[in-house]
Specification:
With about 100 residues, the chain is mainly alpha-helical. It folds into two domains: about 1-35; about 45-95. Helices cover about 70% and strands about 0% of the residues. The model has no long low-confidence stretch (mean pLDDT about 80).
Length: about 100
């Protein structure tokens, strides 16, 4: 890893974005390994089942997010007139 701060070479502390990129690289390496394992005759069927279930789950999450955003915006519209106006009111409404 490269050190982008002055004291990082002594302490070994990394930036937040470096940890996030490292986590993405681990996930992509794992998916690449699953793609290679898929060609093995005794494990391939399980990898194919995993990918099919994962695709179905992603479709469900897409529909679920539409409902979450719709209800969040509805509650935001109802609660916006209660007198408490903050900067992150919309974000908190969608989060909660």
């Amino acid at each position: 890893m490269f050190d982008f701060k002055d004291g990082a070479e002594n302490t070994g502390v990394r930036e937040c974005w470096q940890w996030q990129i490292g986590a993405m690289v681990v996930v992509l390496a794992w998916l690449n390994l699953l793609g290679d394992i898929r060609q093995m005759p005794f494990l391939g069927i399980y990898v194919i089942m995993f990918f099919d279930i994962f695709k179905t789950f992603l479709r469900f999450v897409g529909v679920f997010l539409v409902f979450i955003i719709a209800f969040g915006l509805g509650f935001h519209a109802l609660l916006i007139t209660k007198g408490v106006r903050k900067k992150n009111c919309l974000g908190k409404t969608l989060y909660i």
